[in-house]
């Protein structure tokens, strides 16, 4: 199928890039594959960066993915950035000024943390996306008596707060303009249950307030809230969402608002030779309402890579329709989600257990179950898994 | 083929069970049990299981 000189270029050499290369081989692509990634490392697993690795329970070295034997011959251009692209000429431009031509292009450049734009010093303020980020943060969290403020009560913020408490930080406070942690993706019922659990385990909260600025001269000494209150802080973690790395695709007439827009086959800009995979892809899910969304879940790099590799090698599979799956480990409990809770926020029911203990919550749309989330120990996570088959079998949800 | 799960890493997510139920199972206590020498015909499923394990705890040896 591929002429011997044919080449696929994969921009972004993390999980989605690696999986794309492996799946291209599985789909029968025998041509060259070049992965270009701006981090100096081979692909590694990110979820432990806010959990086991930050806690010191697993070494940094344990994160590396084990690539399949089928990709032993691919070319890795690490420490190299793609800075521009000309899709009409099937060319990408690298940061050393050189150009690479391609027969197929995979956009796998993922996300970077959004930063707070308010006045104050930068030193002592952290984000958690890369290995280097987690190493830097761990060094400061393990200082005796550290007072930690986490800005943003989303899943990374909640995980980091839990890990910091586990590491023995003197004070850990989570700040968020919303009234409950993770209330956007999980809703109020679980948001309240999470809040109670975090408080019981020693996390403090300043909710319903934003951050106005940072106190300190050379280094942050406190977080200034909207009403002027100052929370003393030695370490600040900003977990306030992420921005898609799409600048390199500019100038090609693509829709790059919040990720790379794809069609239901993960193709970009209607081109047969360009696909997007992983966190950066904003795709319609044929299982749901057809509205294109980005999905920052760990299962998505693998799911998108599998589909996109088929498309790039000339197949026309049924439209992409993954079942989103998500977990988060915080303190001694786990959140395990299957399906799309966000589409069933108006009808949330307790399916098993009790919000004060282990609980399984169902999210419904038009009386139909569209997502489940378990909160608690392994038994309740298994209960969530029992609904997975039903969620998979259901016909598409039409808006 | 030979399958090895690093039980120090495994946190009983059970994602491998969805991918290759013939090879991986969760027992009544929710702990992972698996076949360590599955038939080579199951390679695709086992590779998929290794891919989807959040802890990357599954190793396949030829
Ligand atoms: C701390 C943390 C914890 C997480 N925990 C969970 C969890 O518990 N459960 C869950 O379901 N999900 C979790 N996730 C989400 C999951 O890890 C991501 O969905 C996944 O990493 C996405 O992979 P990706 O390859 O699409 O993107 P990324 O991993 O972001 O990879 C993109 C790569 O491209 C590189 N790049 C960017 N721009 C360029 C360029 N112009 N040229 C070359 N290279 C470029 C980047 O440096 C990066 O290496 C977590 C994420 C983080 C950060
Ligand atoms: S998916 Fe991985 S962590 Fe989960 S049960 Fe299987 S081996 Fe263990």
Automatic annotation (TrEMBL), chain B:
Domain of life: Bacteria
Nucleus among keywords: no
Transport in keyword set: yes
Cofactor(s) annotated in UniProt: [3Fe-4S] cluster
Keywords from the named record: 3Fe-4S, Electron transport, Iron, Iron-sulfur, Metal-binding, Transport
InterPro entries the record matches: 3Fe4S_ferredoxin, Fe-S_cluster_ET
Known role: Ferredoxins are iron-sulfur proteins that transfer electrons in a wide variety of metabolic reactions.
Designated name of the protein: Ferredoxin
Lineage: Bacteria, Bacillati, Actinomycetota, Actinomycetes, Kitasatosporales
